[in-house]
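Most newcomers find our protein records easier to grasp once they have seen one. The structure tokens are whole numbers drawn from a learned vocabulary of backbone shapes. The record below serves as our worked example for the rest of this section.
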Amino acid sequence: MNNLEELQCHLVGFENSENQIAFDYSDGLICSIEKNRLIIYGNNKSTENRSIHTINVPGTLQYVKFLSMYDIVFLATETDLILYEVLNKKILFTLSVDSPILNLAWNPLATLLVVIHENYDVTSYVYTKQFIELRDKSSLNAAVPIPVLSGWGSINTQFQGPKKVKKPTETKEEATEVVPDTSPKICLRGNGELFVVNYYLENQRFLKVFQSDLEALNQSEPYTNLQDSVAFMGQGQCIACWAVKRSKEVQLVIFEKNCKVKAEFDMPEIQGSIKKILYHPQMNMLAILYDDKENNNFINIYLYSNGRWFFKQQLYYPSDEKVYSFQWLNLQENLFTTCKLVVFTTKNIECHYFRFIISRCPNTATVAVINGNEINFSFFDKKIIPPPLSSCSFTHDKPVNRILFHPLKRMCVLIDSFYNVKLLNIGNDAIEEITSLNDYKFGASNQLLSFMWEDNEATMILKTKNSIDTITKTHNEMSLILETKNSSPFISIPYNDTQLVLPMKTLDVTNNYIYLTKHIIQDNGEELSFEFALSENREFYVNDTLVCSGVTSLYVFRGYLIFTHSNSKLYCIRLRDHFTYTNDIDLNKIFNREIEQGGVIVACTNLISPQIILQMPRGNIETIACKMITVDVIEEMLKENKWEEVLHILRIEKVNWNVLLDLNPERFHTHIEDFVKSAKNNTILSNIVTEFTLDDNCFETFYKNYSPFISPKFDYDKKSIIIDILNYLVSTDCINNLQSIVAIQQKHISLKSALKSVKDVFLSDKLRNESVCGKAIKQLLIQEHFKDIENVAYNLYDLDFLSLVYRNSLEDPKVYEPEIKQFRNMSVLERKFKMSIRGRNLGAAIRYLLRWETAEEDFIQDFIIKNHLEDKAYFSIDMSNRHFVLVSRLYAKTLSILKKYGEAGILLKKAKLYKEALLEYKKGLDWREVIALCSKLQYGPEEKVEVIEELIYDLIKEKRIDDAVILLESHNNNYKGAIGVLVQHNVFRRAICLAETYREHNLIENEIIPKLLEYMVFLMEKIDNHRKQFETYSNRLDVVRAERISKLHMASLGVYDDQDDLYSDTSSHVASSYSKATSRSRGSTLSSRNRRKEERKKIDLKEGGYYEDIALIRALHILYSEVFNFGEEIKEICLAGYEHNLELANNLHRNLSALQDSMIARISKIWSEVFIREEESSDYSILAIIQNKQDLDPEYRTSPSISSAKSWRLKIFP
């Protein structure tokens, strides 16, 4: 639905000469030839603004091409190919051809030249900086390969349609028109791989397609009255030609590259002979040059969309200004925002700059599409009509070039190619002409430079480039001012899609805006103005500040900025939420939704809930909703208490129902009655309430980027709101509202509560309410599995309700009816027990089983053990029950298996099973409870001693030395045994104190002190072993790292030691070390069978191993932990030996302190900053350290803590 509007027409004047032969435009330079003169216009490092060069060659110059890569001009006569150096004004190279040249063409990169000769030979030449060299040779008469039809039948039976009936081909009558016998025309495809030749043979014209190596691929069949112009699509398979019908009408004929006719289009607007057809290099767009009977020249520009060619622009040139030629300018990028056309005439060289624009009314969703003299209007507010259809159309007598919509009124102005102006009123169903101004027809190359509407009236100011200074014409209510202006490099661009009356904005040469719109919003009484702009390279500006790139279209609607992006997303911003725009805007934090790649905004409908209309690259349109706008609409409507309309919008737009609740929970709570009444029926109400979520706010989760309007935060318990809705439904009419009640309970409370509600309604009146309850059960069956409903129904213990559930299911009555009958013949407790089992509720089953008087104890015990119900049985029984002892014993046994001996003892003690409790306390080593139970059981001294001795043995075995000593000393009266236990476990200080308490000095001198001194000597040796081990490991690590540095350096130079295999494990990992040393995980590539072997290598300290460095680091980390934690033991031993051997205690203290200090000093070298940071580097010293770090366990990658290395040290030692 794009239209084409001219933004600028820049004119370059030159000598008025009728003898111009050929032109070329490239990189801002214009080259023309006149006889043997080369004339160059423009600024370039090798040219002046205008220079004339005389080329002294035999013959007349006929072709020119500026080769911008080398600042060389290619020239050609009928027999010579010439390279001309502009800077030195000399001919570099000349090549003569065998046969006169009829036509030639360059590929887009100017590396290959294709020439058609008079004898119909085709030659290709390769161009380099200094010369042109013949590459291939062929002929227009070359045979084309016969196509092979695979799987489609013969050529006469292909593509016959679903009925397999081939449509009869229409026989075209021979026209009296003579096919022109002109020279062949050649055109290359955009990528230069193919080219097509339109040539004359035996009073007919043919198309033939060649590859770049001149291999003939395809040739067309004869086509009646096919003319000589041809154009190959820049990026595609189409070839455009034209023909004359019997009625003398012009017809555009589109061939495919296989030279088969693809489509034919009538061109009634072309009344004359076509001189040139040219595809745009990148877009499906055609420019056609033709002249009429008065020798006036016209250039028509067409856009292809929806299977039609839309006539968008016409450039008019009177008979006194002849058009030599024209060419499209390649804009390098396929952005489809602008296009440029250069036209060579006898008076000027014109550079036309066009933009693609969607013409729409700012007040309504009315879009106008230009197609020549017909304007198609689509009223999207009333009906979505896919293109090329429209709501209505208006026909003008001349091709229309531009449509101007009034910013405030429902009217527009048409300006045709002759600058006739017509004012139209946009009605509800039709377009009405108000007035017109067509008394003036201006000369050639008119340009609309600027226009504007004045105030709120239908007044327009129009400026054009013309020889007339100023013309003012007033007709009815319309005043038109035409003002002359010379050609200028400045561009005046209008403000589109705005409700402000603004003049056009003049841009300087550095500004490349192609779309402008301006809007003002009110914020706390202050006006905020926003000017939004799009540039030709899809950059998006706000108030001349670049915000982001890749924006394909934008539209401001109802205070929202909506734009599409090349990342296949549509974005929407509230203008009142974003007052400042910077170039670091985060698109991820803006509302967005996925759209089809290439979709652009056409319009927005003015409905209660607006729809955004997008047009896709294929030409089809789609309507989407912006949920952020919908949410704002809902908020405004809820403020007006329009709950019914809100529910309708939410349902149509498929907005999450949580919006109702999360927008304002307090408001929703106070309008529960309005909400329920607006739902109209239980089905809608159930759907809404079941979608409510109780945990999160939807504007903090899946609607997070909707940026809701600024409003207070509500700290509300949403479950209480749900409960209030439930209570309201129950209090109004619980029977008719049962469906909604059940839906709420099933979703937000439990399935059991939902079925219980159905059961209560059913039991209140079984006959009347059976139908309602049946529908509720069927509703539950949609959301829940029948097995779950069946289980809950059994646990409600009502056989009539259970039968109702079965009747509304798909279960076989032959199965469930006998079972229900059996239940009816049972006692109450037995029935509830077995129904609980059937409902898979074993907790309830054991409760009823323990109350079932006739149940045998063995059955109860087996049932509890088999179903692991010991805990549930215990918690559901009281002490008065006759099975209390049995249940306590079973649960205590379970706890004992779980090693919860103390808890088992408590249960058994409560059940007065004291002997069994004593055994559990013994297992738990709770000697205080054991002694207390011995007294309660009235054990004799010998029995008590035996129990205590067993406890002491078990305590010592579990390293509970303190408890064992207390029992020996206090309860067994054996203090010497207690001293012996302390000495045996190296607790010398306490042993000495206990011996001194009982005045056993001989025991101290003869047993405790010798053992103490012997242990101190052992500790001295142990510290010395730790020191030697530390020095060995740390020194070896330094050596390994030094060797790694050397090997990595030599390997990078390609030098390996004689002892190293080039394909060894070490050398094979050097290359990967450069890319990312830390990413190496060799074990991950091994098979599972060898993985354990690989893990063992990582801790192997064998010298020369690949993992030796990390094995050493691991061993050092373990040694550090052992030595640092050794301090507390040394502290106790030094304190014990201080009075008995001060020198030995001092040495022991000093040696451990010195070892710890030396180890602390080496930490920064072993776990260096380089090793810990693990940064990528090409430095060999860094790679050698971090190469295997990822294979080291995480706990060894950081240095050990030194906090425990100094806290133990004593101040009484030097």
Residues 14-139 form a domain with the Methylamine Dehydrogenase; Chain H fold (CATH 2.130.10.10). The longest helix spans residues 1001-1052. The longest strand covers residues 3-13. The radius of gyration is 48 Å.
